[in-house]
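Subject: two folds for Thursday's group meeting

Dear M.,

Sorry for the delay on this. The cluster queue was jammed most of the week, so I only got both jobs back this morning. I'm pasting them in the order they finished. Each block is the input sequence followed by the predicted structure tokens. Could you check whether the formatting survives your parser before we put anything on slides? The first protein is the one we discussed after the seminar.
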Amino acid sequence: MPAIQLTPAQRKEFRAEAHHLDPVVMIGGDGLTAAVKKETDAALKAHGLIKVRVFSDDRSERETIFHTLAEELNAAPIQHIGKLLVLWRPKPAKERIEDEDRMPGPRDVKVLKFSKRGGQRPEVKILRVLGNQRLTPGGKIKRAKPKQTSVKKRSQT
């Protein structure tokens, strides 16, 4: 599969986004193995834009790793600076089951009630929170408030 082709403006945007990222895949002395390719593929599926750190001093080897990953994983090579490689691939859309009558079910939540006096064990309560309810920081259950809309939005509809 060929690598994704991007315009220089798109590359510039992805470089800016990747600036603050930490490397999620590290390539050690064994080089580009099947396990590294699998991890890189999983990271691209999860994040879309990733940094890869290569612990090799040979620049030509890093360059070949960069282009090989881009070709084999159908990713766009964004940047190769020093020992860092930046790759991008659009994240696949998650499949959602669309059931109209599907509602969030009840969930059980543990609440710790601490004693006013020190040295006593906290009391553990298990509360069932329904879909239209929320748990307050004080450990009480309240119904969810209806979402408020602004006056301008109400007048437009």
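Second protein, same layout:
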Amino acid sequence: MKQFVDESKPIYQQIAEGIEDDILKEHLKEGDQVPSTNQFAKHYQINPATAAKGINLLVDEGILFKKRGIGMFVAESGKETIKEKRRQNFYQEYLLPLLEEAEKLQLDRQSLIRMLEEGKDGES
């Protein structure tokens, strides 16, 4: 479990994103049990209701599911659900602003591709 570093985001949202990251990195796999709200609360020294709010976000999105009396588990399609959600966010938060700025600078598609490839290779 990672520590909270983003002061601009609520803790419950950071808990949800941390669980998503663990699923994407396959630290948690489909069918695996996630830590309980009390485990999150103890580890992060937060109110259990805050931890529950983060977990419930993922339940509402179909990423986690509850087994009554046992706990929360990663849904069968949880990883794909996260990928699709993050792809959409990536487009909105990164690509659209990039394309708008490129248009202002009159950068063509090939220039953008070249810049991306150079950045990928560690060149500048």
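Two things I noticed about the second structure. Residues 78-104 form the longest helix (27 residues). Helices lie at 11-24, 37-44, 48-60, 78-104, 109-120.

Cheers,
T.
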